[in-house]
Amino acid sequence: MLVRLALIGLVAGVFSAVFGVGGGIIIVPLLIWLVAFPAHAATATSLGAILVTASAGVALYAARGDVRVGYAALVGLPAVVGAVVGTSVQRRLSGGTLTLSFAALLAAVGIWLLAG
Amino acid sequence: MSTWTIVAALSLGLAAGVLSGVFGVGGGILFVPTLVALGLGQVEAAATSLLAIVPTAATGVIRQRASGNLKVKAALVLGVASIVGAEVGVRIAKAVDEALLRRAFGVLLLVVAVQLAIRGVRERRRYPDVS
């Protein structure tokens, strides 16, 4: 289990470094697929992992002066409200519906990568 | 910045948060293009997006922990491994043709999407939506 989790994290890190999209898009499906996490647990745990990586990333970039705090607040504060709405919506979805919706999101990103 | 620009940025931020809460992603996929549209450079936009992700993900984590969905130890292992993976990713990005990488990852995502779709359909048959 630990080895698989570490591998999923590695792949997600590679993905985010190469394409600039976060690891969540990789972590969630691999947790469902490879370690049989229920969909809700997969998305929750993905957010925990993202919190770790984003915090580390901010520390690195902030040291180089690339972080614009005002702009982060402009998009980040409404996003906090959105996250409350999103988690409430998610509570009303069954695991199957959440998995199916995520499959659609994943397919869209996959097509975007192939098209770009 | 015009009023409409601010309204658009706030709306896209809200949408990124909803996406994050529903799907367990950071929201960077919307934050980065929004910040670029506001005039930030690519590096600044990526860095600033990470700062916006921190409170967004933290909110989701707190709410999900209350629901009993969060597996803390797994999240820590994933997070730390992901930081190591990012280091590797930077080297791979320099060494390998980007178009090839995009195609490989694109195909990988489509394969996983099909797996998930099959799983989702099966699960929905067994357990329909609540309320």
How far apart are the first and last residues' alpha carbons of chain B, in Å? 43 Å
Mean pLDDT rating of chain A: 94
Poorly predicted ranges of chain B: none
Number of strands of chain A: 0
Sheet bearing the most strands of chain A, described?
A: none
Subunit arrangement of the protein: heterodimer
Please indicate the count of domains of chain A: 1
Q: Tell me how many strands of chain B there are.
A: 0
The largest sheet of chain B is: none
Q: What is the CA-CA span between the terminal residues of chain A? A: 35 Å
- Give helix and strand order of chain B, one letter per element, not per position: HHHHH
Shape descriptor of chain B: globular
Radius of gyration over C-alpha positions of chain A, nearest whole angstrom:
15 Å
Summarize the structure.
The complex is a heterodimer of chains A (116) and B (131). Chain A is an all-alpha fold and 116 residues long.
Name its key features.
heterodimer, A: about 120 residues, mainly alpha, about 0% strand, globular, B: about 130 residues, 5 helices, about 85% helix
Write up this protein:
The complex is a heterodimer of chains A (116) and B (131). By secondary structure, chain A is mostly helical. Chain A has one domain (2-115). Helices cover 84% and strands 0% of the residues of chain A. Chain A has helices at 2-19, 24-34, 39-63, 69-91, 95-115. Chain A is globular, with a radius of gyration of 15 Å. The N and C termini of chain A lie far apart (35 Å). Chain B has helices at residues 3-23, 28-37, 42-66, 72-95, 98-126. In chain B, helix 1 (3-23) runs antiparallel to helix 2 (28-37). Chain B is globular. The model of chain B has no long low-confidence stretch (mean pLDDT 93). At the A-B interface, helix 1, helix 2, helix 3, helix 4 and helix 5 of A face helix 1, helix 2, helix 3, helix 4 and helix 5 of B.
